[in-house]
Amino acid sequence: MMKLRIRLPLLVVPLITAPLLLAGFLAFVELKHSAQQRGDQQTQLLLDRVDAQLRQLIDSAGANVQLFAEDPLLQKYLLAGDAQERYALLQRPLQRKLSSIQGVFPQYYEIRVLLPDGFEDLRVDDGALANLTEEEGQSPFFLAMRGAKRDANVNLIAINPDNRQLALYVTRAVHLIDLSLDSYNATPQLRGYLSLTVSLQALLDTLSPSPWPQGGMLLSDARGRPLAASREIEHLPGLSQLDLSPLTSTENAERWVQLADQDYLHRARRLSDDLWIHLLIPEAVLLDESRTIGNLVLLICLAAIGLSVPLLLLVIRSQFLRPVERLNKALASLGQRQQLVQVPVQNDDEIGELSRSFNQMSLALYQSNEQIRSLAYSDSLTGLPNRLMFIKTLRREIEQARQHGGRFALLFLDLDNFKHVNDTLGHAAGDRLLVKVTEIFQANLRGYDYLSRPVGIEVGRDMARLGGDEFTLLLCHPEADQLAGPVAERIIAALAEPIDLEGSECYIGCSIGIAIYPDDGRSVEDLVKHADLAMYQAKTRGKSTYQFFSSAIAARSQERVLLDQRLHSAVEALNFHLQFQPIVDSRSLRMKSVEALIRWNDPELGMVPPDQFIPIAEENGLILPIGDWVLEQAARQLVAWKQRGLPRLRVAVNVSSVQLAQPGFARQISRLLRKHQLGADELYIELTETAVLQGREQVLGNLHALRELGIQIALDDFGTGYSSLSYLQTLPIDILKIDRSFILNLQENNNGVILSAIITMAHSLGMQVVAEGVEDQSHLSFLLAEGCDLLQGYLFSSPRPAEEIEQLIGQPLPEARQDTAQTCGLVGPG
Ligand code: C2E
Ligand code: MG
Ligand code: MG
Question: Which of 289, 405, 681, 711 could form a disulfide with 706 if both were Cys (CB 3.0 to 4.6 A apart)?
Fold first, then answer.
């Protein structure tokens, strides 16, 4: 498609030029017509003028000849009877007199006195003329004159034979009475003629040049024979042969004739009976004016076009194309640039309106872009930068530090008990908590100074929320290495305070891992991974602490990766077995039940304790197949013992929170019991405090379903978590298993007092109490004294293979203690 830049001029140029040329043409036609009319008028005027002048010439010559004819000297001369008197006495004075008349009227180049017989008696001329004819008696002139009346002039226009020029002869017959001879009243007798010869050539010459310099005039007789021509044309070849008769037959007509290869306009007018005036004007001269007019009109048109077209194009360009181009450019850059694009609004016209609309649209787009950007780069809950923004910022910091050899610290923060709040109080409360935590960061890090120098942390810029309860803090400071520790301490201290969450106080805590650029990593991935690992390490070290990344941590994480890999192959190969640890009745000291404990003997890693691989399995999901396997094995073992007719034994199976969170867990257990035809009282499950505390509806649902099936539930490792007995009261728990750390450190921190209180309260809640980690007699004595129902520990037996358990059934167990060292193998105490 052709561009407007080209199309508009293509449209505009003909639109302007066509009407202008048409107007020019019409003007030309009109002007030409009026020029022709003017030409006509001028020729008519010219002919009129010739006519008038000739008449005047004749009239004045007539008047003069009459006047001269009455001259007494002339009359005396003509009356003189004797030749002697006439020629000797009168001729000279008369000649002088006529010469003086001629001096006054030079146009009468001949004044003649003729005798009645036609003899030219006296002649006065201008001297340039030779008198070829003295005897005029037979000349046409004289013949015409003789026929004239008395006292009347005779005018004759004819070629003067003396000079071959056209001449006007004005002649008067002089009649006189000779008083010396005749009576007074006698009739006057013809005595002679007085004749004036006037040059008509002069008339022709004074009339030309006409308005057409190359044109000329011609006199002809009535038959169209040329008599005289004006100077301009007299030498034109072919003029003498020109037949003028076609015009002399019709008055005032015109025609075109050709003379010397040129066209002439020929006009004629009758001046007298036998005299015609002709006008010959070359066509070129006539057309000259129209040509000039045409050229002038053309010039005006071209000038108008030449002026208006560029002007219009200029106007189109500046008023239309330029703004459109500007808009176009702005539109194109709208998609590319991040900045606000605006175009100048120059006028209030449609383009101005368009520009204004564009600006509004651009502004709206820019604002919504900014909004999208801020949504894309900030965390909607806390308003902190999000993961995307954090990665961007970190990448930029790395680049800057790389260029300038700088250092900085990346702090990786993870809230310790966020999951608990989320699970117990709900997500909405969890969200409010995150907002409060952010406020605490703001309040504690703003203007924070170290060694009286401000660190310059800006929470809204340097902190980010990666998701969940994970935060990061970038410490871009020349002394980041030394500052990171104190900053972490400050954060931990701030979060150690209880947070008020709609009335209830929450202890949230925070673990922080720190990685330093460039020592702990030079890429985004490495720095984040290492700070995360350090944070993980801080958590395992006991929460609410911070940890710098170290090579040891890296090694541990590698170990973890290896364990993860090996665990996958172990699950595939089902490379596990179960051991059982007796749980003894405190009154009979006989085995009442056993706890099934998983063992993994890896071909590469050797024996791996469950404390190490169970958390990994819980993270990677392998705990589900492992848990299924344990349940199945435990059930089979029970069946095997039953089939061998051994005394009745219950089996406790450890169940992970991940298993309990599975919707069909309770049904799975009931299917298992049915499959192996076991009673609900033959198997019970142990779950850790955290599993219950995570308190998700699914877990609680499963627990209640299990209780309905008649399966007992033991709460393992009680005392390590944060649950209170009053909270546990609401849960379907039958057995409380006190963590072995209480028993092992019985002497410390009033543990004994606490323990006895726990046992009393648990009993009052209708729960049985099991003590783990009973290792020596002192433990046993204390627990027996406090009325603990069941006992478990190396004092009675370490976990053992099923065959060995069979031998212990029905026996009092402390005696078996000696075997412990040999059987517990790698899974020793601790
Ligand atoms: P737990 O359920 O508290 O198991 C008791 C742990 O205490 C066992 O360690 C046992 O060997 C150890 N123990 C028993 N008596 C004494 C003693 O007198 N002194 C000392 N110091 N320790 C004693 P084990 O077998 O290494 O298991 C560790 C933990 O691994 C278990 O703690 C349990 O939480 C988990 N676990 C073991 N087997 C399974 C399983 O099949 N499924 C799940 N989910 N967890 C399991
Ligand atoms: Mg247990
Ligand atoms: Mg335990």
Answer: 711
